[in-house]
Amino acid sequence: MPTCGVVYVHSTPLAVCQHVEWAIARVLTAPVTLHWTAQPVDPGMRRAECSWTGRAGTGAELAAALRQWPMIRFEVTEEPSPGVDGERFMHVPGRGLFHGIMGASGDIQIGEDRLRAIMASARAPEALSHALDKALGTAWDAELEPYRYAGDGAPVTLLTRVG
User: Fold this and answer.
1) Parallel, antiparallel, or unpaired for β 2-13 and 73-78?
2) What's 11-69 look like in SS3?
3) 72 in Cβ contact with 20 (< 8 Å)
4) Per-residue CA distances from 50 to 1, 83, 135, 140, 141 (Å)
5) Per the confidence metrics, is the pTM higher than 0.85?
6) Helix (H) or strand (E) holding 115
7) Is pLDDT above 90 for 110?
8) Confidence at residue 103, expressed as pLDDT on a 0 to 100 scale
9) What angle do the packed helices 17-28 and 58-66 form, to 10 degrees?
10) Of 147, 159, 146, 149, which is closest to residue 20 (Cα–Cα)?
11) Angle 138-150/125-136 helices, nearest 10 degrees?
12) What is the spatial distance between Cα 130 and Cα 78, in angstroms, rounded to a whole number?
């Protein structure tokens, strides 16, 4: 059963743009040409986004492919499909890759077993708050938020996985 998602490349050096396209093309097994625009939040950087369609797990493959360039900021989402939770991957230079389960509304969700483990290990309210922020990817969200707003109204490329 196919699913869909979006790749948001929030910022990348111009020299890496073609490599990003090749990485996405390898995962989708189809040629990819993105519409790159200037990233106003980070002068000299470029941004692009594309919607994709493919099998469940494609989002993780795309995130793994893009992660090889530690200087780029990106997000990859994968919508829920029958029997498979949705996912969001966020990458920020110096912070690394965050992965979270995504609900139908796009929110990060924390399962009950993980919540129980966080509550059991937190020795003080501040520790609980910190652990929940980490589990929700709050620091990644905070760093990416200005880049998201800078992309409002930008062109989107539609891609389909061949295999």
Assistant:
1) antiparallel
2) EEEHHHHHHHHHHHHHHHCCCCCCCCEECCCCCCEEEEEEEEEEECCHHHHHHHHHCCC
3) yes
4) 20, 25, 27, 20, 19
5) yes
6) helix 112-121
7) yes
8) 86
9) 150
10) 159
11) 40
12) 26
Answer whether 54's CB lies under 8 Å from 35's CB: no
Residue 149 has what pLDDT?
A: 83
CA distance 93 to 73: 7
Q: Quick one: DSSP state of residue 84?
A: B
Residues 6+ apart with CB under 8 A from 116: none
pLDDT digits (tens, 9 = 90+) for 81-104: 888 999 999 999 999 999 999 988
Q: How many residues does the chain have?
A: 163
Distance, C-alpha 64 to centroid of its chain: 10
pLDDT band at residue 153, thresholds of 50, 70 and 90?
Answer: low
Residue 157 burial by CB count (10 A; 0-12/13-18/19+): exposed, middle or buried? middle
